[in-house]
Write a structure and sequence with these properties.
It is built from one helix and 50 strands. With 660 residues, it is mainly beta. Strands 11, 12, 14, 15 and 16 form a five-stranded antiparallel β-sheet that branches. Strands 19, 20, 22, 23 and 24 form a five-stranded antiparallel β-sheet that branches. Strands 28, 29, 31, 32 and 33 form a five-stranded antiparallel β-sheet that branches.
């Protein structure tokens, strides 16, 4: 049986499916005050009921995703609901009375005789509907193509069929487009009218506006504007041909000129995402001052003009000097926008330069960015910024007009760290940062960002065995929570003592590990993992008494198996899978360990931690020849003929496989 589940498409390429179900025959009672005839009736309560049922085919198979309507003279008459995956449907809030329950589908799609039912107190409040004929599923087919010339950049597309229900469009089915010709097919659709959504993902394409594009058939921005597609029973619909991506008539162009009206060539014009301030596309003005973006996605963009030759002031549309004052332009279907710039000559500008350092922790500073905020009308506006030089930590912010500035740095101090902020000179915020006055042409150097709190604290304690004997040589590690950066490591001395320093203020998990493996690894306080450990808070002083008692590792209680695999020599490469199967209490053999051999010459294999018991060993040479050769130890193809191998604690039998 076919159908769809009642689910909403919530974002590009990701679908959240939400099911609603109700108990059959359930009775709902609510209170409502109505404008009834008599004063007594005006204060009476009106009881409402739930009507349930099941929609099936003549053979009894449930029908999912069909719209069912209840028509009567009572309250909530004309309500429409959708059958669930098991064919069940439910109406809530019905007043007592007689109803006609029928399919709300067009007659040429599905048909069933209406059913009359009485709803009220003491009644079953249930009815079933049986289709007149066995339904035949429909199918939505079509092709998806990139609207970018030569089809470049379209990585894949996701096509969704949406069906209208009471003013909302519900997900009915979907298909990935992975074929070179862009073909797709969405099978098992209930016959009816649909609208189509297409999400396309582009990699490396010459597009502006990001890698993901969403459109609705036929070149609509929203599902409400999309074109209807009829899916008949038992046949393909008219093929849907879709172009996904930025269409070529969505152009943004203009001219760049100087204050005298002459063409300004070589000026970089950029499109900026107004939400993230990230540049999503750029081009340059030509000798005639013209620039053009030929493929721009729908959306809003800030447009800027920047002269890297230091002839003109940076300008944002519509002629303002900061991104904060810029007005985004809207790009829509078929739009052709003209955005022109008149650039003012660049006056003598100032420069701020310096270095970024860390005042704590062993991790290197892997990223730093400094922003210069200029005071304009009692507000601090970002006017210039610089990325840290990875080798020296240096930064240089150029082309700053004269004025008063404050500096803010964004820092990442470990590969997996999160960005942190620092302000000059050791301030807590931009509002309290030190003012830096700049005059025309001034070069201010020597600015140093020493980010982070001083690393002057320690965590200390003692490590012993379970009876209190000090353990020397245990590795103790402070791991900053919650992101897992190692901040300090130490070894215990002959008295079992250790000290983790220097540490900046923060929360830490403390790990105790024996490099020799004689004692089990644990976290403070007697925890098996960092997530389960008791965190140590370092605030304004050293933390002592973080002790541990480690348990000795018991002798091994398992065995192992090993051997040599000789793969086929004619396949070009080897891929041999080995499976250790242990006989359980019921006599069945269950896989308890596997190994892979990828060498094309005889190679060793080993499966460790095998519980004592009886085993048989299976191997498959998948190879590169397209066929798979299987065998059991010792050289047999049937499982019942396999040689049974007994494994005890510390035993490692030799199991060899040879493939011809």
């Amino acid at each position: 049986m076919f159908g769809y589940r009642n689910a909403k498409v919530t974002c590009a390429l990701l679908l959240a499916i939400s099911l609603y179900g109700g108990a059959p025959g359930a009775l709902a009672q609510t209170s409502a005050v109505g404008a009834l005839d008599s004063p007594a009736a005006q204060i009476a309560t009106t009881r409402t009921y739930a009507l349930t049922g099941r929609l099936t085919s003549p053979t009894g198979a449930p029908l999912a995703g069909a719209r069912v309507r209840a028509v009567g003279s009572g309250r909530a008459s004309g309500a429409v609901t959708v059958s669930e995956s098991d064919g069940r449907f439910r109406f809530d809030g019905l007043a007592a009375g007689a109803y006609r329950v029928e399919l709300a589908e067009p007659a040429d799609m599905l048909s069933a005789s209406p059913v009359k039912v009485a709803v009220g107190s003491g009644l079953a409040n249930r009815t079933d509907i049986v289709l007149d004929d066995e339904p035949v599923p429909g199918q939505l087919v079509g092709t998806v193509a990139s609207s970018i010339p030569d089809q470049s950049g379209l990585f894949f597309a996701f096509v969704s069929a949406l069906r209208e229900l009471e003013g909302e469009y519900e997900f009915a089915g979907a298909a990935f487009v992975a074929e070179d010709n862009g073909a797709f097919a969405i099978p098992d659709l209930l016959p009816g009218t649909y609208r189509v959504r297409i999400d396309g993902l582009f990699f490396g394409a010459p597009t502006i506006g990001g890698p993901v594009f969403t459109e609705f058939f036929e070149d609509a921005d929203t599902v409400e504007l999309a074109t209807d597609i009829v899916v008949p029973a038992g046949a393909d619909s008219v093929p849907v041909a879709v172009n996904i991506g930025p269409v070529l008539d969505r152009q943004l162009a203009g001219t760049v000129s100087d204050s005298d009206g002459d063409a300004a060539s070589g000026v970089t014009v950029s499109l900026i995402d107004p939400d993230s301030n990230a540049t999503v596309g750029a081009t340059q003005s030509g000798a005639d001052g013209r620039y053009e973006f030929g493929a721009v996605a729908r959306g809003s963009f800030i447009v800027s003009a920047t002269d890297t030759q230091d002839r003109f002031e940076d300008t944002f549309f519509p002629g303002v000097s900061s991104v904060a004052d810029a007005v985004p332009v809207d790009v829509s279907v078929g739009s052709e926008l003209s955005v022109d710039f008149t650039l003012a000559p660049l006056t003598d500008t100032a420069v701020i330069e310096g270095v970024i350092t860390l005042s704590y922790g062993p991790d290197p500073l892997v990223f730093g960015q400094v922003g210069a905020f200029r005071q304009i009308d009692d507000e601090w506006v970002l006017t210039g910024e610089s990325i840290m030089d990875g080798a020296t930590g240096g930064f240089r912010i150029e082309r700053l007009p004269a004025g008063v500035y404050r500096l803010q740095a964004t820092l990442i101090d470990a590969v997996f760290g999160l960005p942190t902020e620092a302000f000059f000179d050791g301030a807590d915020s931009l509002e309290t940062a030190t003012d830096i006055p700049l005059s025309d042409g001034e070069v201010l150097d020597g600015i140093v960002f020493a980010a982070g709190a001083p690393a002057e604290f320690a965590i200390a304690g003692t490590v012993t065995d379970s009876v209190g004997v000090p353990l020397e040589g245990i590795t103790v590690t402070a791991i900053e929570q919650p992101f897992g950066q190692t901040r300090a490591t130490a070894q215990t001395d002959s008295s079992g003592a250790y000290s983790l320093a220097p540490l900046a203020p923060g929360s830490f998990a403390v790990q105790f590990r024996d490099p020799t493996g004689a004692f089990a690894t644990e976290f403070f306080d007697d925890a098996d993992s960092s997530a389960q450990s008791q965190p140590i808070a370092v605030d304004s002083s050293d933390v002592t008494g973080v002790d541990a008692q480690l348990d000795a590792v018991p002798p091994p209680s398992t065995g192992a198996a090993s051997g040599l695999v000789t793969p086929r020599q004619s396949t070009g490469f080897a891929f041999v899978f080995i499976d250790a199967q242990r006989r359980d209490d019921s006599g069945d053999f269950v896989s308890v360990g596997t190994a892979l051999v990828l060498d094309d010459e005889p190679a060793p294999w080993r499966i460790a931690n095998l519980p004592p018991g009886e085993y048989r060993f299976f191997a498959a040479d998948i190879g590169g020849g397209g066929d798979q050769i299987e065998q059991y130890f010792d050289g047999v193809t049937a499982a019942e003929d396999a040689t049974i191998v007994s494994i005890d604690v510390d035993e490692v039998p030799d199991i060899n496989f040879t493939f011809e």
